[in-house]
Amino acid sequence: MSMFLLWVLMLLPFLPLSSSSHSEAIEALLSRLDTKRAAPSVQESAAKAVLQRLLPTHLDSFQFEIVSKDVCGGKSCFWISNYNVSSKNGLEIMIKGTTAVEIASGLHWYIKYWCGAHVSWDKTGGIQIASIPKPGSLPLVKDEGVLIQRPVPWNYYQNVVTSSYSYVWWDWERWEKEIDWMALQGVNLPLAFNGQEAIWQKVLMDFNISKKDLNGFFGGPAFLAWARMGNLHGWGGPLSQNWLDQQLVLQKQILSRMLELGMTPVLPSFSGNVPEALKKIFPSANITRLGEWNTVDNNTRWCCTYLLDASDPLFIQIGKAFIKQQIKEYGDVTDIYNCDTFNENSPPTNDPAYISSLGAAIYKAMSQGDKDSVWLMQGWLFYSDSGFWKPPQMKALLHSVPFGKMVVLDLFADAKPIWRTSSQFYGTPYIWCMLHNFGGNIEMYGILDAVSSGPVDARISKNSTMVGVGMCMEGIEQNAVVYELMSEMAFRSEKVQLVEWLKTYSYRRYGKAVHHVEAAWEILYRTIYHCTDGIADHNTDFMVNFPDWDPFLNPRSDISKEQHIIQKILTQTGRRKILFQETSSDLPQSHLWYSTHEVVNALRLFLDAGNELSKSSTYRYDLVDLTRQVLSKLANQVYLDAVIAFRQKDVKNFHLHSQKFVQLVKDIDTLLASDDNFLLGTWLESAKKLAVNPREMEQYEWNARTQVTMWFYVTKTNQSKLHDYANKFWSGLLENYYLPRASMYFSYLAKALTENENFKLEEWRREWISYSNKWQAGKELYPVRAKGDTLAISKALYEKYFN
Which listed site, 38, 158, 386, 742, has its alpha carbon 20 to 30 Å from 11? Predict the structure, then answer.
């Protein structure tokens, strides 16, 4: 046999398959995963428990039943029908489904579209179930019932950093609510990343790594996601044994509930990230130190982690041991494992052969731990490092494992879909994902048209390898409308008619039809929720992401000289008119993709509905969020006006605009304080609640404060490169952190103006960083309960700034 023929035969298992073979490979995987599901009776009981927690008054109104895919035409589905009308035991509605997730999804679909109910996160207003008729009066469905199939098998949920930005301080009570929410939204492929440090401790100690060695390896609780990815080490740590044990117990509770509901959890695997001590224990191992990651001075104390090359035999040993240890702890609960070796870290060479060998070795480590393992990989690298990942490199990685053994998350498909430019990931199965949120920022934003049409376009495209939809936000509990629509796409085979859908959404969310809010949502759809500029919406409002620069002598080097839009409101013939003027500027750029004037009109419409809806928690949340959005965009222009006045040495207008900016910070803080869901105190108290001793309490609070402010380390005169990445519009944070920062900055500018001297940027930085360090280490208490009348405050602020 020739060498060429031998090479071809070896390569065959890794080549993309035909469409029919592709389907067969996925079906074989799904069939294998089905065997790991809980018994039908267990799943039915789990679905019933979801109903009891959501709607205890109607527990006897619904009957649930697990059915085979044969009943659903070979796919996953739910089937809603009327129970025997002559039933005397109170049963009214029968919901059948292929798993408990499908049953819960069917329940949600029924109470939404037949009863006008609404389910969202508690921190986005919670549920609206007042519209559901009393038991015995539930609406009937058509005679034959309603059958809804999944057009694609999976509905994936989470980003690898969501565990740090949103879940880090959760206890089981909060996790139980989240898993219920997942089930109701149809999530059947959730990431399950809690507790992995406890697994790593057991595995690495078998390789002679000590607990002391791990102190500088694991990150602190709020920074674990980046320690896991090898971006940093030790920052915010060390982790106590209590934390490790506590999180492992929590993970077992999470996995148990996911399995009861018929979900397939995605567990972590080994990516090559190792403690420094391993290099000393295994001096001949191929371990290299990675380059700097967001440091201000190339200090390696917190960055530049160690990577064990996947081609080294030790990689296989550790990877196998980690998978085996998880199976020992949790049981054989899944075959799908996440691994992101190259997340914001490029391979040492772009040689396709080398990249292929790395991919094969990574998968080998998985498969030796679980022979049926499937590698789930975030496709973020193909976007964030597109200069490196050209077609040859992408193909080398994607084809380095047997077909059907890798699934890629098209992580940013809502704005930057990779499937379109990579021939369907060169034949590799992928999940169409919505990224949407960065850093857990609070910003009204979305691309509803892309959410409605993107998954459908991808699925019906020629040679499609799409196998699921997913929500991969960095932080949750914001923009409820976006996540409700995205969740529905797991069960929709056609594009949604959004104008009509938003009318029903408004009715469901507030419990009644109110013309003013319906009209407001039409405006929001074509403005805030119609971002088509392709820019990733990381909140850059100046109030929460304050520019660090000298506006007169040293324009920021990172501010591009690109065209931008300055919005001016002029009065002409007694009418307010919006003009958009393109200018070339070195002024800071905040992200603005819509007419602010139209959104102010939407706010007025929301306020006009206040008398009818003021008792609705969902309405109050949306009113706070919309008022905050409008005022923060106004503050951006006020900040620029102050900077322009400073440059022109216009003392009077500088003081006018800088004082107005400061007042806006105070006013928004007062607004946020009127709703429980916008409070800094909730975040801090949830962190301290997990502590079992004063030392942990101090550490956890520092982690919580630092993540939402400076994020990473600083020097005396240099802020962290990641400062404000995880900014939040929370009452307490505005008044006690963002307000002092702006006030200090404007004071230094005012001094430069009045004394006719240069702005002392370094002195301001020194004073501000010193203040921030003290605040991050502070222990002052912040409210966890709202105060004030949201509607009255919002009306007053509208009158003050827009009337």
Answer: 386
